[in-house]
Give the backbone structure.
Amino acid sequence: MKKYNIIFRALGLTFVFILVLSSCSKWIDTDINIDPDSPADVPMKLMLPAIEQSMGYNMTGNDIVRTTNMWMQQFDGVVRQSLNQAQYTYLPADINNTWTSIYTEIFMNSKVLIDKAENTEGKVSPYYAGIGKVITATTLGIATDVFGDMPFSEALNGNTNVLTPTYDSQESLYGVLNSTLDAAIADLSATANAVAVAGDVIYAGNVSKWKKAAYSIKARHALQLAGVNGNAAYTAALDAAANGFASNADDYQVPWENANHNPIFQFMEQRTDIRMGATMVDMMKLTNDPRIPFYCAKDGNGAYNGSVIGSLNENASKPGAYIAGATASSVIMSYAELKFIQAEANFRLGNTAAAQAAFEAAVAASVLKVTGSANATWLAANITGVSVTLDLIMKQKYIATFGTNQAYADYRRTGLPAITPHPDGVLPAIPTRFPYAQSEINYNSANVPSVQISDKLWWDR
């Protein structure tokens, strides 16, 4: 009897277990382990604004732009970590968060967006794909111009990610940058598009403006290769610029709002350890530049004054509303910058009249963008008809591209405008590159190059 009782009890337990399993779907929510805040499949219209704002925050709104603007003495670090960075102490740990965000928030998410746009249920959206490619190329261009060689070809392989990717040379990354922009332009030129673009906080789905941005970024990086390609670089820059921005209305920038403040505004609200640099402010004062009150807040004496590099002047002007207002946009690239590219390229090629016209248009565009006024009297007195020189082009471009990384890229390429290195710098000259992130050194040590921030990049000749 005991034997049969055991068998019966076992069969009974099995039967109960089967009943429980069969009825699970009736009383257990099958979505119980799905986090509604982290959905597995995010619509493209929700992915795009997050990618765009990450680009604005990380590439021209936070650590990278503050550091390059300090090294260019447009800002001055006067206390704490910013003081150290202004003195060229820039450590792998300082760039960790930005490096991670570049790969996870921008590169990987843009790749997912592109893949969805090209393959989702047969509903191909070349416009979404093209935008994703412009963002990828834009980010790659800014990143490789501060880091040089970077993981890319092995770093973005979805579920087959290589945990220790090799580093692609900067030369090859420039090839990827240009081919990606060419592919973006082809996508954005498509006549059939199954899924309309929504969620675009930069251009509101205007593919014509995205195409202009793609050509403008091509022009920026064509010029950057002047040391490698010589006059061919200037010709390539002009060819691309011809299809680029046509006015300030085309500017490539990420907007912010009261619910999501400008990154430099946030930094000043929380840290407040940078001030305007006297090098740039004094340069502007020489001509009573109308952009000063927009670039600078008044100091404690009610005046606009920068911190002389090395003076640790915490009483100097803080960044003004144009660059650090709560809702001020983070500029990726402007029409003014494009006109400066045309001015320099034409000047280098001996096209003096074209260089003069582009230079005057560049300064006028910058002044209008920053101040909201044409300021015709100031332009007539200081810019219009003044014989263009390379030094003049680069000085005005330095002022106009404040708040982006372009002055740092241009300085390494041209040595202009002339800037005296920080008197208390740990290096005798301005650094020529960023270090690699500490996370790379820790987890990808076999591949991460050994570099010093005084090393030159591939194009820096």
About this structure: The mean pLDDT is 91. The longest strand covers residues 330-333. The chain is about 55% helix and 5% strand. The first helix runs from residue 2 to 27.
